[in-house]
Amino acid sequence: MRVLRLHRQDPSDYSCVSYWVLGENNAPGDRNTLIDTGSQDAGNLAYFLDTMGSQPKGIGKKAVERIILTHAHYDHTGGVGGLEAQFDPEVFAWLPAGRRHRPVVDGMTLRVGDEDAVLLHTPGHSEDSLCVHVPAARVLFSGDTLYRITDHLGAYPRTYLESLSRLAALDIQVIYPGHGQPILKDGSDFIRGCLENVGGSRIQD
Fold first, then answer.
1. Catalytic status, residue 205
2. Burial (Cβ within 10 Å: 0-12, 13-18, ≥19) of residue 50
3. Which of 167, 155, 116 is nearest to 137 (CA)?
4. Would the pTM count as exceeding 0.90?
């Protein structure tokens, strides 16, 4: 599994980090997948297309065969239209999105690059939040479900506490978050730290 982090540094455009996931060997059964599209103005779209054009992606295969949206906030979904015009991908999301929307069921398995991933409904940041878990690689694409929560501050919905508890039970080494740099080791420890801090805060039903 090759993971390319796509994020154009542009202070005028607030956008998430997108992840382009490809197979190691560009096999016919691989599925070139983009996790979140960013807000994507024209400059961002051009940056994405230029990056995609520079990478091997399989003979006769589109650079983006499917998109997974971790939730519907604009900084994660704004580029759907532009990428649809280029590649006409399937769009997997909890809420309807895109021309070829594919509804997500909690726990469904989906080919991402050359690995089988599990789509997990993890409400809390938003009601439609998803995480993408790749068990064989011990990888989690967390969208905005995981933040660097370092203190007992504020209040959190109970659904968020429950989602973190679910993620804390997984065997995770690497976390690719929707904002900031990847966590490249001890991902499960990081999740448990978030859970501890949220659990020590005020929980809203």
1. no
2. exposed
3. 116
4. yes
Q: Give me the half-sphere count of Cα atoms (radius 13 Å) on the Cβ side of residue 24.
A: 3
CATH number, domain 2-204, options 3.40.50.720, 3.40.1000.10, 3.90.550.10, 3.60.15.10 = 3.60.15.10
- Domain ranges for the chain: 2-204
Half-sphere exposure (Cβ direction) of 180: Cα atoms closer than 13 Å: 13
Helix, strand, or coil here: 198? helix
Q: pLDDT (tens digit, 9 = 90+) per residue, 37-53?
A: 998 777 788 889 999 98
- What's the pLDDT band for 166 if we cut at 50, 70, 90? very high
Tell me how far apart the alpha carbons of residues 156 and 161 are, in angstroms, rounded to a whole number: 7
Contact 121, 96 (CB under 8 A): no
Tell me how many helices (H) and strands (E) the chain has.
Answer: 5, 13
Which listed residue (10, 36, 50, 75) is catalytic? 75
- The b-or-e profile of 120-140 (16+ CB within 10 A means b, else e) is bbbbbbbebbbbbbbeebebb
Nearest to 199 by CA among 167, 166, 169, 155: 155
Pairing of strands 155-157, 202-204: parallel
| pLDDT digits 0-9 by tens, 144-157 | 998 766 555 678 88
